[in-house]
Design goal:
heterodimer, B: 68 residues, mainly alpha
């Protein structure tokens, strides 16, 4: 879908969309905190503009923000995402353990996050090659 | 792994930005390859070698440590 949008606008567009959805959630929720939706829109707009401006810079961050990363920059982004995911997994495990220890009712979101990560990892393995190992080529073996 | 990218680029009087544009990569990637911090993928290694009219094994020497 995003390939129809100019590369430099892709990430800002996702941020803006996320901000609008988050703001809509606060509006739908109603109540006295409806004004948080305005803050969400302002924050998302500020972040989208800053990403758009960063996309013009001749740096690794600029290339990633502007969706014009080359192979090294893509690898950099991938490794950073892997690190972020590992940190999130550790944080979720710590949260789950603490919630259980304190007999708190908020243990299940941590479990959901851990389960999604585990499922995502297995999905990645099946998508990116483990299932494509195939059979060993026996050429050259005496038969 | 040592490579001859910097040497070949200097011989042709190219800037890092010009080489990056010719290879369709970023200037930062050319800098990382030249300094040995990044090993390019096989397609990029072939592109670099072809650009300089050399073979990949002439361009990249796995037996030599880089100069870091």
């Amino acid at each position: 879908m995003t390939t129809f949008i100019r590369p430099r606008l892709r990430k800002p567009a996702w941020i803006a969309l996320g901000g609008v959805l988050f703001a809509a959630a606060w509006l739908v929720r109603g109540g006295p905190l409806w004004w948080v939706s305005i803050l969400a829109v302002i924050a998302a707009a500020a972040r989208a503009i800053s990403l758009y401006r960063m996309g013009a810079k001749d740096t690794d961050e600029g290339a990633l923000a502007g969706s014009r990363a080359d192979e090294r920059q893509s690898q950099l982004s991938l490794r950073s995402r892997a690190l972020a995911c590992n940190l999130a997994a550790v944080a979720s495990f710590v949260g789950l353990t603490a919630a259980i220890a304190f007999n708190a009712p908020w243990w299940w979101p941590f479990l959901v996050i851990l389960a999604v990560m585990g499922f995502g990892y297995l999905l990645g393995l099946s998508n990116y090659g483990v299932a494509e190992e195939g059979q060993a080529d026996d050429a050259g073996t005496p038969g | 792994m040592r490579n001859r990218v910097r040497e070949q680029r200097a011989q042709r009087g190219l800037s890092q930005a010009e080489l990056a544009a010719a290879l369709s990569v970023s200037r930062q990637t050319v800098i990382s390859i030249e300094s040995g911090r990044y090993l390019p993928s096989l397609p990029l290694a072939f592109s670099i070698a072809r650009f300089f009219g050399l073979t990949v094994d002439k361009m990249f020497d796995p037996d030599e440590e880089d100069g870091r």
